[in-house]
Amino acid sequence: MSDSPPHRVAVLVSEGAKPLDVGIPAQVFTTRASMPYEVRVCGAAPGPVTGGDGLSYVVAHGLEALAWADIVFVPGYRTPDRDDPPRSVVDALTAAHERGARLAAISTGAFALAATGLLDGKRATTHWHYTKALAAKHPRVRVDENVLFVDEGTVLTSAGAASGIDLCLHILRADLGVAAANHAARRLVAAPYRSGGQAQYVPRSVPEPLGERFAATREWALRRLGEPLTLEALAGHAAVSPRTFSRRFVDDTGYTPMQWVMRARIDVARELLERSQRGVEQIAADVGLGTGANLRLHFQRILGTTPSEYRRTFARRDPAD
Questions:
Q1: According to a count of CB atoms within 10 Å of the terminal CB, is the N or C end of the chain lower?
Q2: Which residues contact 55 (CB under 8 A, 6 or more apart)?
């Protein structure tokens, strides 16, 4: 450990706090010879805190820990779209930020940060299941649903629980350098840096029924993704004009027809990458994207990663492996 004073880390446990979200920063930054950090787990007051998933916590510190900390982690908690943090917690977070502390939210902890107003006008993320709720509840926050974490300097947010590891390693890289972050990643048996965003973890948007009006046309298109599919062809199958089809299709699915076709092609490509050994060029041809370069372009744009990285992450192994 260096001779400089340790960084002071507070992990703020709220009612309904998710166990992984609490445990990740507590473990990553736990005090040890190789890590110049001191960790305190706190709540709105010292004592028992009812957590989520059947677990409860007994915290030794109250909100005074936020006045002590250089970094404050806000783990995710249940029903963030309905339950606001207590005013005392919001005020303590705001005061910590004004004093110069970094505030880092894991998963739905972003709602607590948003309640302070400190995310207004800034990019932020949260668990993909709650991105729309965060944007609706805090419209001044620029919600990015396809990233693992966002660093806005003194306020940071991350996606689902495992993305808290990515955020913690990012903070370690900034504080101590790449070697220290890689050492921590090895200790955690985690990737030092994951490429891509959380869109690759979101359940597939097709072929689940997103609206019944053109369900038959969507099923027809899904069986023909390897063929040219134009707006005119889709509208012709639905027996309406292209203009009417486009307008009603957006109402049904939230996507334009050609956006939906592209996402359907990417979804099938995902499955082929997971389940088969076909090369990228062959998969591109199979799903109607023509070339590997075209597949890589749209894969990166929609999922924030490459086909090869996706395959390394999600390819199914033989059960004997």
A1: C
A2: 19
- Two tokens at 209? 């029924």
| H-helix or E-strand spanning residue 137 | helix 131-137
**Helical packing angle, 257-275 and 231-238, nearest 10°:** 100
- Please give the order of strands across the beta sheet that includes 71-74: 37-42, 7-12, 71-74, 102-105, 155-158, 149-151
pLDDT at position 46: 96
Q: Which helix (H) or strand (E) holds 238?
A: helix 231-238
Which pTM does this prediction carry? 0.73
Tokens of 18: 């998710």
Which are the contacts of 265, defined by CB distance < 8 A and separation ≥ 6?
Answer: 225, 287, 288, 289, 298
Q: Which residues of the chain have pLDDT under 50?
A: 1-2, 207-210, 317-321
pLDDT score of 42: 97
